[in-house]
TrEMBL record:
The keyword Oxidoreductase applies. The keyword Transferase does not apply. InterPro entries: Cholesterol_7-desaturase, VanA_C_cat. This is Phenylpropionate dioxygenase-like ring-hydroxylating dioxygenase large terminal subunit. One of its GO terms (molecular function) is dioxygenase activity. Residues 102-277 form the Vanillate O-demethylase oxygenase-like C-terminal catalytic domain. Keywords: Dioxygenase, Oxidoreductase. Pfam families: VanA_C.
Length: 289
């Protein structure tokens, strides 16, 4: 078992459990970047997380936010992103657990950014086979927070959310907050002036083995918590089939390796951003000619 030495990856906050997964006094053994991790719930709202090397443990920093327990293996971690919607009192803050996926964490991010698959993978829910076009949108590198944003995204959806009662042209804003975290803002069905916030935080266990956590801060006074979780997990499980069959599983950053289309503008921006930060974990190195 090899633990990565990539400082860029190590200096990210990543989830290691979802809040409430472990009973008070209980513990969980897991892995991040090839490093065995021990997570212990020490109180109602407190956790202890440690990196385990044989019989030796090194205590790690902990943050409990967005329904997740986060930790970092680095000494100078990138800040955990601020998502204001999770602090709004009238929202349904829902953690949808996690789902294991055998692929690169970056493939997970790109799948989340990709609107082109909606009609074919999430037919009659997030897309329709007679309306498959991805309309032009814009990407930005917001240097003040070092994040990638995709704005002015629109796509027709027959059932955009659990609360939807019919089809609509859904407005999206995508936000890549770190190499291992991504979210979207989607207009609320019942209140067009507001946006739902839906996230994916990725725990990279190994280069091609991940856990994806799916917290949401949404405006929905009708659906039960169980309905919200079932809807989100059903969408993600449809994606998992595609993700685990993508080859190569590692992500190539050489622009000639995989040819993009206009619909892939957010993926292009994301890969350029990853290349500029010189991340190595989970990246397919260019083969010599």
């Amino acid at each position: 078992m090899t633990v990565t030495t990539d400082p860029v990856a190590l200096n990210q906050w990543v989830p290691c459990a979802w809040d409430g997964q472990i009973p008070v006094g209980g513990s969980l053994d897991t892995m991040i970047f090839g490093q065995p991790i021990h997570v212990q719930r020490t109180g109602e709202d407190s956790y202890r997380v440690a990196a385990v090397d044989g019989t030796t443990e090194r205590e790690l920093p902990v943050q409990v936010r967005y329904t997740c327990v986060f930790t970092t293996l680095g000494d100078t971690p990138r800040p955990l992103p601020e998502i204001a919607e999770f602090d709004e009192a009238d929202r349904r803050i829902t953690g949808c657990g996690n789902v294991g996926v055998n692929t690169s964490p970056y493939r997970l991010v790109e799948n989340f950014l990709d609107m082109a698959h909606f009609a074919f993978i999430h037919t009659d829910v997030l897309g329709a086979l007679d309306q498959t076009e991805v309309l032009a949108y814009r990407t930005e590198h917001r240097k003040e927070v070092d994040e990638i944003w995709a704005i002015d995204c629109t796509f027709y959806q027959p059932a955009a959310s659990k609360a939807a009662t019919g089809g609509q042209l859904t407005r999206y804003v995508y936000r890549v907050m770190s190499p291992f975290s991504v979210m979207l803002y989607k207009n609320v069905v019942t209140d067009p002036s507001r946006n739902d916030a839906i996230c994916v935080f990725i725990q990279p266990k190994r280069e091609t083995e991940c856990l994806a956590y799916m917290p949401m801060a949404i405006v929905d006074e009708v659906s039960t918590v169980g309905d919200l979780i079932d809807f989100q997990q059903s969408i993600f499980l449809q994606d998992r089939v595609i993700l685990e069959n993508q080859r190569p599983a590692l992500l190539p950053l050489d622009p000639t390796s995989e040819l993009p289309t206009r619909a892939d503008a957010s993926s292009i921006a994301y890969r350029r951003w990853l290349k500029a930060m010189d991340i190595r974990f989970g990246i397919l190195e260019k083969q010599a000619a």
